[in-house]
Predict the structure of Cadherin domain-containing protein.
Amino acid sequence: MFSNVTLYLIIALCATTFVFLVTIFVLAIVRCHASVHMEESAVMQGAQGVLVQNWPTASSAAEVSPQWVLASTATAGTFAMAPPAVLVRMGDKGFSALQPIFCFASFIVALHLVNGDLSYSIPEEMKLQSVIGNVAKDLSLDLRTLSSRKARVDSEGTRKRYCDINLSTGDLVTSERMDRESLCGKKPSCVVKVDLVLENPLELHRVSLHIQDVNDNSPTFNENLIELEIRESADKGYRFSIDEAHDADIGQNAVQRYSLQKNNIFILAVDGNKVDLVIENKLDREKQSEMSLLLTALDGGSPQRSGTVVIHVTVLDANDNAPVFNQIVYKASLPENSPPDTIVIQVSATDADEGVNGDVTYNFVHISDENVNVFSIDPKTGKIKVSGVVDFEEISSFEISVKAKDGLGLTSYAKIIIDVTDMNDNAPVIYLKSLTNPIPENVSPGSEVGIINVQDRDSETNGQVRCSIQQNVPFKLVPSIKTYYSLVTAGQLDRELVSDYNITITATDEGSPPLSSSKTVQLSVADINDNPPVFEEQSYSAYVTENNKPGSTLCSVTARDPDWRQNGTVIYSLLTGEVNGAPVSSYLSVNGDTGVIHAVRSFDYEQFRSFKVHVMARDNGSPPLSSNVTVSVFISDVNDNSPQILYPAPEGNSFMTELVPKSAHGGSLVSKVIAVDADSGQNAWLSYHIAKSTDPGLFTIGLHSGEIRTQRDISESDSMKQNLIVAVKDNGQPSLSATCSMYLLISDNLAEVPELKDISYEKNSKLTSYLIIALVSVSTFFLTFIIIILGVKFCRRRKPRLLFDGAVAIPSAYLPPNYADVDGTGTLRSAYNYDAYLTTGSRTSDFKFVSSYNDNTLPADQTLRKSPSDFAEVFGIVILLLR
C-alpha cells in the first residue's frame, strides 16, 4: 500500500507528463497546418519551386529509392515544397503475350499402291554393273530419298536378283549374268520381272526386263551321226525324216536353213521345222551300197553360226511298210514328286511287215536336256517311266516326241504331252524385308516397325497363304501389297514391363493337308524417360534426440526409377524452405547419391519439437522427371533443463515472506511452491522436498503439488521466524534440481514484527524520493521547452525587416540526404541565379533557375506570414529536444 504523499506524487508526475505531451502534439498539428497554408499562398503568388521524384532508369523502380530534383525556381525568395507526384511503378517483369500451344497429332497412312510399272528392253549377256535405265528419273523419284526410304530391288522366292539399284545415281544396273536361253528357253518373249521396293511409305513398282536374244548359240543336232538304212526298192520321191537341228536362240538367230552336200541320189526338202531327205534318183545297191552325206544347219544371226551332222546311208533290200502309232498325240497326267519307275504312259506302234521288217523299237526324239533325265522309254514295250525328279514348280508340262522304227529303218512319230499335277509339297517361306530395331517405347499404336513377305511356290489353293502372329504381343500383321505384310504396333509399349519381344510369325497355306512355317523376329524396346522416381514410402519419419552431434545420420530415403541407365539414375536433394525462419539447408543435408539425411546442426527440443522437410528425387533423363516426399523430423527430449521456480522468487531478487496464523492447525495450507521444467515427459515430472528448515517437524510439502502445510498445531514455543529451503527435482536421468528459500512468520499481524515495520518504512521512503526526482525533472524540462519556444518566436519577429535591405540569402530548399547542395551566392539583383543539385547516385545534375530577387520581393508582413522557415526551425528544435 502506498502512503498519501506517494500517491500525490504519482498523480502530479502523470499530470505534468500529460500536459507536456499534449503541448508537443498541438505544436505538431500547427506545423502541419502552416505548411498547407504556405503551399497554397505560394501557388497564388507564382511560386513554382517543386521537388519532383526522379526515378532512376538504370534499375527497377522496385529496387531503387526515388531521388528528388528541384524542377523550377520559386519567386521572391520563397520556396514551396510540393508533395511528390503519384508515380505508378512497375517491376521489371514485362508483359508476355499468352500464346496457346496447339499439339497437332499427325497420323500418316501409307496408301500402298503399285505406282506404275517400268519396262526396259536389254540384250542378254550384258556385263555386270551395266546400266539398264534410271528408275529415279523414270518414276520421278527424289535421289535424296532413295537411301532414306531403303530403296531396293526384290525378286520373288529364291530366284536370282538379276539387277540392283545404285542409290547415289538412281541407275538400275545388272548384278547377275542373264542368259535368255536358260531363263526362257524357246519362248518368243522373255521377260524377267523384279520389284522395286521403297519404304516409309511402302511403295512397290514392278520392273519388267525384256531380254533380247543375241546370236550366241550355234545350231546343233541331237546326234553326231545319223544312220539310215534304205532299201533299194525305195521309190523316187520317198522321204526320210531327219531330226531337225536345235538352236537355243530364237527368231532370226535360230535355224533358218539347211544345206546338203551335193550328191546324185538325195536332195533336201525343208518344210518349217521338218527336214526330209528325199530320194531324187533310184538307188542301186549294186553300184553304191553306202554313202555319207554332210548336212549343215545355218542360223540367220550376225555373224552367222552353223552346225553339221553326217548322214550315213546304207542301201538295203526293200521294206515297204513303216510302223504306225495307234495315236498321233498321247496325253497323260502325272502328280509331282512321283517316285522313280512310275509308269506315265505306254505308246504303241504296229508294222505290217513281218520278221525283222516288222520289229518295232521306240526312242525319244527332239527331247531337251532337262527332260532326258526326267523320263525314260522302254525300247521294246514303249512304256514311259519316271527316271528323275518331277517338280511342278520347275516344269508344269512336258512335251516329248517318240519315234517308232522297224527293223529296216522305216519310222513314224507321235507326240506325248505330260501335265504335272501340283501337290502341296512346298511350305510357305517368310522373308523379313525390313525391321526397325530397337523401337522407342513411346511409339504410337499403328506404327510400322517391319515389312514381311510370304511366298509359296505351289499353285492355286496350295499357294494361297494366311499369315498370323502370336496373341500375347502388342503387335499385329496388316496385309499390304500382294504377299507383303506390315508389322505394326497394336498397343502401347512399356520397356519397364517388357524390354524384348520374340515375335513368332506363322504362315499357313490352303493345301490339303496344309503346310506352315514360322519365323521368330526379335525386337528390343528402347527406353524413354517416362517414369519419375517413386519413393518406397509415402512419407518418412526420423527421430533424433536433442543435443545431437552435427553430421549425425537421421534417416535414409530411397526412390526407385524403373527406367534404364541414366533415365533411371536417381539424385536426391532438399527442396528450398524454411524452418523457424531459417533455410532448411541449415538444419539438414541429404546425400545426392544415397539419399542419407544428415543433421547439419544440433537440435534443441525446447526450441521446437518437430519439423518437416521435402526431399526431391530427380532422374538424369532428358527432360528430367522428379517426385517429392515429406520427411518429418521428431526431436526427442533430453533432460538438459533444471526446474525453474516461479514462486517464490529465487534468492536475491526479492524478499518473500508468508504469514502463518498462530492458530493454524495441523494440515493447514501455508503456501505453495510453483515450479516448471522446460523439458517434457518424465524429464518434466517434478517432486518437491524440504531440504532444510528451522523446525523440521513443523512443516511438510506435497511431493508433487508443492503445497506447504503444517504438520501439527502451532504452539507458543515455536519460533516466530521460520526459514524453509525447498528443493525441486525432475524425474530425468540424471535428475536435475533447483532450490528456493521460503520465509514464514508465525504471527497474526505484521505490526507485531518490528523488523517488517522498518523495512516497509524504508521502502516507502525510497519510492517517494524517486517520485520527487522524476517530477522535478519533467517540470524543469517542460518549462525550459516553453522558454525556448518563446525566445525563438521573439527573435523571428525582427527578421522580416531585413528584407528591405535588398541583400538577403535565400533559404535553401530542403533536399533529401542523397543530394549534394551547391547554392548560389544570392547577391545578384537583375540576373538569374542557379543552384546545382548533384545526385550522389549518378553523374548527371539538375539545375534550379531562380529569377531576380528584387523583382518579386514581398512586403515584410506578407513575408512573415508566408515564410515557413519559422515553423520549420521551431519544429526542428522540438525534434532535437525530443531526441
User: Anything to note?
Assistant: The two ends are 36 Å apart (CA to CA). The chain has six domains: 118-212, 215-318, 321-423, 429-526, 534-636, 644-759. The domain at 429-526 is CATH 2.60.40.60 (Immunoglobulin-like).
